[in-house]
Design a protein that fits this description.
Elements: E1 2-6, H1 13-21, E2 36-40, E3 58-59, H2 62-75, E4 83-88, H3 91-107, E5 116-117, E6 123-125, E7 129-135, H4 143-146, E8 151-155, H5 161-170, H6 176-186, E9 193-197, E10 202-205, E11 209-210
Parallel strand pairs: 1-7, 1-8, 2-3, 2-4, 4-7
Antiparallel strand pairs: 5-6, 8-9, 9-10, 10-11
Helix pairs in contact: 2-3
């Protein structure tokens, strides 16, 4: 999984990340979906509510720290199993010097880690590495990074025409009038979001309500 969560400040990005990754209650753990979770953000030291992770799993610099994370996944003891790397507010670092290492991560995410085995040597978990990139604007992510994303969570983008045009041209294959209906239906309530599964070419209002699009015009 290579997911991107897009929305302006206060849109609900933090809450959706917690809903996806943490259990409710006092002992919040990452839902047993991932054995190892790493959080990379230049603003991690000033976060009001940091994710419930060991301090050694927080990082701040994309170019310097992402290779360290990848090396830990490949070689460190007790880091077998499914891995999740959350990259928050890294758009500026991506544009500066971090694109190559993220491309490397995306190209090798299925084979980067080591599977978790039981005492009989049977695989319990794969060693796949999933990623979540969090950004305020979709266009802040370079196009070749956008093309590798498998799942999108997009909060209301109607305030920025360039965002709408990119979503329409790259992610949603339908007529513009249908696209506008999807926007109006999805964002009639605060904190609603579009969920797009690019592997299956499916679009949802939230996670549950799929938009069924009848497409008669192909070009």
């Amino acid at each position: 999984m290579r997911m991107a969560v897009i929305g302006k400040s206060g849109s609900g990005k933090t809450n959706i990340i917690r809903a996806l990754t943490e259990r409710t209650g006092k002992n919040q753990i990452y839902c047993r979906r991932f054995s190892n979770v790493y959080y990379l953000s230049p603003s991690v030291k000033t976060m009001d509510r940091k994710p419930k992770l060991a301090e050694e799993n927080f990082y701040t610099d994309l170019e310097t720290d992402l290779p360290i994370i990848m090396d830990r996944i490949q070689h460190e003891e007790d880091k077998e199993g499914r891995n999740l790397i959350i990259m928050d507010d890294i758009s500026h670092q991506l544009k500066q010097n971090g694109q190559d290492i993220v491309k490397q991560l995306f190209q090798n995410n299925r084979h980067l880690g080591r599977p978790l085995l039981n005492e009989e040597g049977e695989q319990i978990e794969s060693g796949a590495v999933s990623t979540i990139i969090i950004a305020q604007r979709l266009n802040n992510l370079p196009r070749h990074i956008r093309s590798q994303i498998t799942h999108w969570i997009i909060f209301d983008p109607r305030h920025t025409k360039s965002e709408l045009e990119t979503i329409f041209n790259e992610l949603i294959h339908c007529d513009k009038n249908i696209f506008n209906k999807i926007l109006n239906k999805t964002f009639n309530k605060k904190y609603n979001f579009l969920f797009i599964d690019t592997n299956k070419s499916k679009i949802y209002n939230g996670f549950n309500k799929e938009f069924i699009i009848s497409q008669n015009n192909y070009l």
